[in-house]
# Entry
Amino acid sequence: MHILVCVKQTPKSDNVKIDPATGCLIRSGSESAINPFDEYALEEAVTLKEQEGGRVSVITMGPPQAQQVLRDSIARGADEVYQLGDRALAGSDTWSTSYALAKGIEKINGLSPVDLIICGKQTNDSDTGHIGPQISAWLNLPNAAFVKKVIRVSKKSIVVERLTEDGSEVLELPFPCVLSVVKEINKPRVRSVKGRLAAKKATIVTWNADDIQADKTMLGIANCPTKVVKSFTPKHENTATIVEGNNGKEKGTKLVALLKENHFI
Amino acid sequence: MDYAINEMEQEVLNTTREFAQKKIKPIRAEMDAKEAFSYEMWEEYRKSGLFGLWLPEEYGGLGGGITCLAMAFEELSRACAGLALTPGTSALGAIPMFLAATPEQREKWCPDLASGKKLWAFALTEPEAGSDATALKTTAIKDGDFYVVNGTKHFISTGKEADFYTVAVNTNPARGARGISLLVIEKGTPGFSFGKKEEKMGIRSNPTYELIFDNVRVPRENLLGSEGRGLLYLQETLDYSRPGVAAQAVGIAQGALDTTIPFLRTRKQFGQPIITFQALGHKVAELAAKTEAGRALVYTLTHKMDAEFIPAVRNAIANNTVVHEELKKLKGARWTKYSAEAKLFCSNVAMEVADECVTLCGGIAYMRDFPLEKYMRDAKITQIYEGTVHIQKNEILTALIKEYAAKAEEE
Amino acid sequence: MAKADYKNVWVLAEVQRGKLSPTAYELLTAGRKLADELHEKLCAVLLGFEVESFAQDLIERGADCVYICDDVHLEHYIDDVYAKVLNSLVKTYKPNKFLIPATNRGRALSAKTAVFIGTGLTADATDVQIHQEDGQLYATRPTFGGNLMATITCAKTRPEMCSLRPMSYERAVPQPGRKGEIIRFPFDATQHTSLAKFIEFIKNKGNDLDLSEAKVIVAGGRGIGKKEGFQLLAQLAERLGGTVAASRPPVDNGWIDYRYQIGLTGRTVKPKLYIACGISGQIQHMAGMSGADVVVAINKDPNAPIMKTAHYAVEGDLYEVIPAMLESL
# Structure
């Protein structure tokens, strides 16, 4: 089985800070990592590889620094890694990004047919959850999002459980297909020593827009359909009533009294 | 401090530190309270490749040596000495096999050992043969292509959960200690059963069982090395495994300090952080110095061992020979004294550090909610297993007397 | 694509297991405002099997028109089938704006549909406005885990699509007797296909109160420190007739199941009373509970962000405060 995982290098969420004066994002280059949701996608791919045999390829779109997440993917058990790196891609929205990834996947598929594409549920920097379903649309493949469990795998299809607000739905998808997975699906392993050593030596294949035969009028900030016209930091006003008391016990009693007094309970 | 470790060893540290944080710490208290073996943790160790650190790449291992094994054991024990035993005792059980096995036996057992698919355990102690291993009563009498094993082992770590047991038996009781041999006995062999499960002071997440052998027929190809040479292999095994226990002890001491120092920095009494009281602060400094001294001793020793162990393993694979024989060809010095010194020193440091840390932190540290009393309970075993502190002293003393006797003769 | 050919505001009325989702009413509120400003019609899109009975409800709550595609193939949600039907509908009737609920299903469906249509999509917006001058849809959404709000437009293509976070708008109230048009759209089994097969639905186990319906929520964060802490929270929740919930760290630590998670990567809630225990109030969490009527924060750290935004701030150890609350209740 040839499994392909889409990953993105994103800021470590805890390190994202906003400059209160300028409203700009403070990001330093060293503090980025694999999108946390992608860890689950990769773990699922590696687990399936261990069970079913085959190999795992990983693709990312991003600047040269993004190669770090591909090395990390090798450490986590991936076999081959591909980077889409081209200035023409910069500033792409999800529509353009998914298009470029789909073109990259088509090229990988040409080298060795892909059976299964796995994405994380969303990224921690833009939180859209679009990429998985959109790749499936470009490639005209069946897909399932919010996948929380792989129930069984056969030569021709995969049966998965996806999360809904009221429970879960079981679906069978024939290969090739696209899954977006949620955190519940597995517990990502700690990268092995062998993996970490292999990551340092890994060869990264880098392609530009021409290599993947992408239509440049569909790429990048100038061509993608959506645009950010304004960004701002949300404001929170300080309105809290401080519940006074000498210790936790007194404050707890006081709080109940206040809530009762105002008919909140 | 930098112990001149290589790239692989550095990655072993990085891996096991991350593993301890992400996988062990969240469940250590629960597994300790339940006194239960964690299959989930076994699987996690397996997925992170932590069973094969010291085994050659030919069998799916990492190709590291005793240092990699000791470092991993230190870092894992720094979080939980009990959960660290899953790979720890598997290595201990397998070292005698690895040393004495024929190339065919290695081929058969090492791949599943390295991948962690199968767990190994070491079975030496008997009710009447503890420190005195020569007194063991378990017999293995030859019957055609089999040995018929009878007897009881007790206090066996990872008992019941391990798949393979390296068992010290007597194949020729008439010859006493010279009749001791090592057999590999697989779980599920008819007549091999598990008796009492011990309830322990510490390392509670690792199950300790009694093994009962009742006319167990073990195929002859499960004999390690030759008959009657068991004590020799056991001594060699302990030489390589005691630095591991020493490393575990250093990990426990470090873990206790890791818990204690932040508490002392933030805990205020009489209007100031209690670490600023010199009586307490100086105690911490002393404990930290001893811990570092222990670590320095362990890694100096394991690096020396690796300079011999790793080439011997390479040679054994290249020449299709037994590791023990290759070691013999290379060996200048015996490690017994140094291994015993490392284990004696480090296990005493672990006990002292854990004990003092509980005192330093006070009442809170006596409570199970605070992750410190467990270090004190866990530390104790390092002074006992793989030879008590007194046995280590015997080993050291015997070596010293020999050394000085030889010197006296020279003069 | 001639933009002027695209008229009207569409909202997707989600039907799940034979029930109309309340998100439909929220989208009608948002959509009504947009349609009025544009002087265009508000249309609801109803897909499913035996769903026609919901049309009148949608009309009474503000839809001028309801497009219905009712077919047994639409009984269960399959991404391809639904996205292809929506694509056909859009290509046929050319809406100007199209709002879809940002539920699990809606998030995936809107994404796939946008590519089929060939238009831009804004995910998980919390506010939608019509720009006075250009009539474009200005959709505002949290990014970078809610640390930054971004307003996004889609200038060139139509419809402008947006998924709208549940509970961002009030539910539209019915006006009995309100009239509207119903347009039935045929399901085309040769085109609206998928290779995926629906097998079964598994209902959530346990009789936990639905978080989104809870009137009182007692939520725990990193400060709970251990799994057992949620038992104390559950006692308080039970006494107040509510349910427990959590911010992300307890879920990541395995102290509580993911379905209790509130925030950007979890559920959005709007209870009357929200008691945040040991929750620092990271913006990702606030995104899920800022709609609560009254927020109480119990935290050891007086400088935790939530202590500024809560209505009542209690500086203290939750393991002291909550037992005291239980005693005086």
About this structure: Chain C touches chain B at residues 227, 253-254 (CB under 8 Å).
